Every structure is written in structure tokens, then in C-alpha cells.
Amino acid sequence: MKKMNKILLLGALVSLVFMGCQSGPNGELVGVPKRPTWFEPEPTGMAFIPQGAFQMGQNEQDVPFAMTAQPKTVSIDAFWMDVTEITNNEYRQFVFWVRDSIAMRLCVKNGLTDFQLEPKNPDLDPEFYDPADPNEVHLNWKNATELWGSENPEVEQATKDMFFSKQDALYGKKELNTHILVFEYYYVDLNQAAKKENRYKYDDLGGTGDLSQGHYDGTVISYDYDNYGEEEKFENRSSLVQHQKVPIYPDTLVWISDYTYSYNEPITRKYFWHPAYDDYPVVGINWHQANAFSAWRTEIMKNYNLSQGFDPYEDYRLPTEAEWEYAAKGDLQNAVYPWGGPYTRNFEGCLLANFKPMRGMYALDGANRTMIVASYIPNDYGLYDMAGNVAEWTIGAFDDASTNFTHDLNPNYTYNPKVKDSDAKRRKVVKGGSWKDIAYYMQCGVKTYEYQDTAKSYIGFRCVRSYLGKDVQSWEGF
Fold first, then answer.
1. What are the Cα distances from residue 473, in Å, to 50, 142, 441?
2. 119-133, 206-220, 259-273: which has the highest mean pLDDT?
3. Is 220 exposed, middle or buried (0-12, 13-18, 19+ CB in 10 A)?
4. Which helix (H) or strand (E) holds 230?
5. What percent of the chain is predicted at pLDDT more than 70?
6. DSSP string of 49-106?
7. For residues 229-246, average pLDDT
8. What is the pTM of this model?
9. What DSSP designation does 212 have?
10. Host H or E run for residue 294
């Protein structure tokens, strides 16, 4: 009798649990209470690229017979894309953020927080913000100017690595030590997580039904900054976290190193820092630095959203090769160039992009080198400079035959080289052509490559962000 009472009591408790969880009548499946309708606002400086399908690859004569972009029909999900290439001024925001975060850590370490650190919200009590967090604190560089000139030994200790000790010959002040401008970030390697050998295995060896224990028995390739490309045992999910440290200052010497027997010293000294070049595309950025910029941009966006109680959006990143090409065509299926036509001039004979026309008459299009972004008309998606000005990094690895083995839904071939891999494994896809290229390389379907750890005076980048809302597509005609 006691046993029966216990069974009835247990049954009653189970019923109460289910009654407490259900939100609808008659025991029907109604789901959990609906959350407020989610809306993704338009990101500043980005254009919406709707989902669709297109013929990826060349649709014009393959002049060098490279055979690297065979035609293939693919489908692409909706995403956001920067309307212009990242400019010097935008990239300087990244440089300043890293500079200030390093300076603040040095000052906090040496107890100098009261002198030049100011909360971004002046109403905050100092006890409730982190004086070493650049998301919460401003560095007052007007006060810092006085600080750096102090004879105080603690100040000297805090700033000895921040600036070169040698006085700058031109401006009579200490010069920023760009070598210490290193951005540190983490990411989860989902591609390795998805491998079957890296999935969690339940132990239940005796067939008892006990699934409380398990293990991992796979291996992962570490891409940590201090152990790049080495194979390690998969211990737990933390093995999938990759730790990156990237020097982020542009290579301002590319204007000289890219061209022998030429005089490019003036632009070398001015291009990244002078206000005259604020709205020019940033160059001298390698593939790792472009990824670091995207990670930083994601961090500041997510930190703000969380502080406002918003749900996070997707990460900023470099576009895939397919996304870039789809966006460049501007919803014109067979477009050779982003403006649609097969020619580089309009009906009035004006050139439509910044490239190298007429076998070396650089200035014929208005500039010997780069131009201010958005100097030419946009394509039908509202994107500027998808041909010419600077070529652009994509996230994809370069392989001559990648079109043949990638999927037809959001194709993307990626490869992180291991330590012993050949240089060919370090090639990344570059699209769009640049100010120094002939018209062939500006075609939407043409792809070429550059090595991921090299920076050039003719390669920049722009970011994309996957769209989280409902995909919008006109189905008329299908």
C-alpha cells in the first residue's frame, strides 16, 4: 500500500510539472511564450545584399588561360557589406583603440589612473568602471602629453615602451612605438569542432544506459599565436579556442618596397597619417590584420549591444569569394564588370573605375595611385569600388580547382596552413583589381591571390556580416 501511495504521489508531481510548463489549453503543443519580434537594424556604412543565385566564375574570355574560375551556379544567403573599402580614417580608429588600451594598462599597472583616465560616461562612479577597459574609459591625451614629459620614475616605467626615446626630428616629440601595437583576441574553430572525430563520445561500455560519462578522442590543429599549425590532442572543448596576437599597424613602407627604382617616398611618409588621405582606402594590411580588424569591430559592436540589452548580431568578417563576386555583380547575372557592361568607359568616353588604362597611363582615370573611396558610381547594390582602386582580401584560400569541389550553397574553401606546409598553402583569394592593374583583373569573375602574411600598396579590404532576419527575395518569375 505504501509503495502504491509513493507511485501515485510521484505521478501527481510529474503531472504538476507538465501542467506548470505548458502555456496553452488542453495539453496542446504551443511552444514557450513568444519573445518580442526581433528586428536587425541596418549597420552604419553597410548595404543589404539579398539572398539569391548566380553563375560564379568567368563569363568572358579567360585571357591568360588561367582556368582558375570555371563557371558554376551557386546560391548565396543574405548579408550586409561595407559600401566602400575600409579607409585610413576608419582603420586609425582601430589603431587608436589598441594604442589607448595598451597605454591604459601601463598606467593602471603603475597607479596613474587619476591623472589621465576619464570615464566615457562622466556620471559613473570610479568604483563601477574598469580603468583598464578602453570600452569604458577615455585616455586624455592632452594630460598625457604632460605626463609623458614628467621626470617621475613611475611615469618613465609606464611609458618607456610606449614611445621611442629618440626625439622625432620633424615634430620635436617622442615617436609612437608602433611595434607594440598588438591586438589580442580569441575565436572558436567551428570547422574543427564539426569533425566527427571531435564529437563527444558517451562511454556506456557495458550497455547499462548510463550516459553520464564520456570523452573526446580526436586531435586538433592549434593556430594559437605561439603554437601555430601544430597538432594537439583534443582534451575538451577549450581545445577549440584559438588565441591570436596580431601586430596591427599598417606597413607604410609598401609604397617603396613594392616598386624598385621609383620615387614614392612622399606618399610613404604621408599616406596613412595625413588628413589629406583620411578617405582613401587603407593599404599595407595583410590578411591576418584584416581578420584582426574584423574581430575588433565585432567586439566593440557586441559590447555596446550587451550594454544596451540587445541580442548580439553576427560577427563582422571578410567576405567569402562567392559573396564578394555575387555582391560585385549587383544583381546583374552576366555582368562582366560591376557596372554591367563589357567596357571600361561609358557612352561619353569616361573611365568607370580607377585602374591602369592604356598600357600605363595611370592618371587617365584621375589618379596615379589610389583615389578617395566612392569617387565613381556604385553598382546596383549601392557598393562602390568593387572594381579598381584597391584589390580586396577575401576569407577564402586560393586553389586553382576550388570551384570544382566546393558546395553550390554558400561555397567557401578555407585552409589554415600548418608549419611545414609549402608557401602555396598560404595563398588567399584577392578580388576586384586595383589602381595598378589592367582591366582584365577588374572583372567580377576573375580571381587572383596574395600570400596571407604579406602586405601590398594595392590591396585593402571591406567587411561583411551575415543577415539574421528573414531572407527577402522576390519570387516573381520563378
1. 7, 52, 30
2. 259-273
3. buried
4. strand 230-233
5. 76
6. E--EEEEES--S--TT----S--EEEEE--EEEESSPPBHHHHHHHHHHHHHHHHHHH
7. 88
8. 0.86
9. S
10. helix 287-307
